[in-house]
DNA sequence: CAGAATCCAAGCCGATACTG
DNA sequence: CAGTATCGGCTTGGATTCTG
């Protein structure tokens, strides 16, 4: 079966996961457990409310995160990876393995990427 | 063997292949054959000299492309994927497969991504 | 032919303040 | 608690011109 139109799923994927904060959020949620808004905020050092809510909304729109709101007082909102988001993890893992060859050249990445949860996998190799 | 420092190969990879034009160039060169500067320029519609030379230099610095200069008159410069660049193709292929699920929602991507050479793989599915 | 230099525009992102 | 509104700067990329 052939799709006649010319499109670029690769660039689309890059646009979905690109941006400064999205990967950090995905990595933080990679275990599949739901996390609350402020929990995520604490887990991604330096992120502002604007960037966090924007990123969460974006990832939710693409079906990578699920947002569940509990109307308690105060309100509680939880985010977690969808099944589709988990399929993304495998792809990102491959990308991470590939990028691992460059770590020696970029030690300055240590400082602002301590939150990346793929690092254990990289370290154990 | 364990690397004690905390780094993020995933973000590093994203920074290497990120940017507006780099993927287009990589896709254009994916067959492994060398291409000349202006050949690449024609193959990536809309790119300017500044962006092209900047992107090529960046990709060369990370060992994804090899640059070979022939001092003829006029000078001839050829670029081709390195072996390391070819390993990247496999990873990108996975990312492209993942992104393929979103094509229906983003038909506007047709117009400015006709150059993406992963599209045949996506179409045949 | 294969770029480099310069200047300019747009958009991403940050800081701060405010709200249901 | 979980966001939104607004403003402003800075980075990224675009247009044009020039050169070995």
Automatic annotation (TrEMBL), chains A, B:
Q: Which domain of life is it from?
A: Bacteria
Report if keyword Zinc is assigned: no
Q: Does the keyword Lyase apply?
A: no
List each copy of the HTH hxlR-type domain by range.
8-107
Which InterPro entries does this UniProt record tie to the protein?
A: HTH_HxlR, WH-like_DNA-bd_sf, WH_DNA-bd_sf
Give the UniProt keywords, A-Z. DNA-binding, Transcription, Transcription regulation
Which GO molecular function annotations are given, in alphabetical order?
DNA binding
Gene3D superfamilies assigned = Winged helix-like DNA-binding domain superfamily/Winged helix DNA-binding domain
Question: What protein name is recorded for this chain?
Answer: HxlR family transcriptional regulator
Q: Which organism is it from?
A: Allofournierella massiliensis
Show the taxonomic lineage.
Bacteria, Bacillati, Bacillota, Clostridia, Eubacteriales
């Amino acid at each position: 079966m052939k799709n006649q139109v010319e499109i670029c799923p690769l660039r689309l994927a890059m646009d979905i996961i690109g941006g400064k904060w999205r990967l950090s959020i995905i990595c933080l949620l990679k275990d599949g457990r739901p996390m609350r808004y402020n929990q995520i905020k604490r887990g991604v050092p330096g992120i502002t409310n604007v960037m966090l809510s924007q990123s969460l909304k974006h990832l939710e729109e693409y079906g990578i995160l699920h947002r569940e709101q509990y109307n308690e007082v105060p309100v509680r909102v939880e985010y977690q990876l969808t099944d589709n988001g988990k399929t993304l993890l495998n792809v990102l893992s491959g990308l991470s393995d590939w990028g691992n060859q460059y770590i020696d050249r970029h030690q300055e990445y240590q400082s602002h990427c301590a939150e990346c949860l793929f690092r254990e996998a990289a370290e154990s190799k």
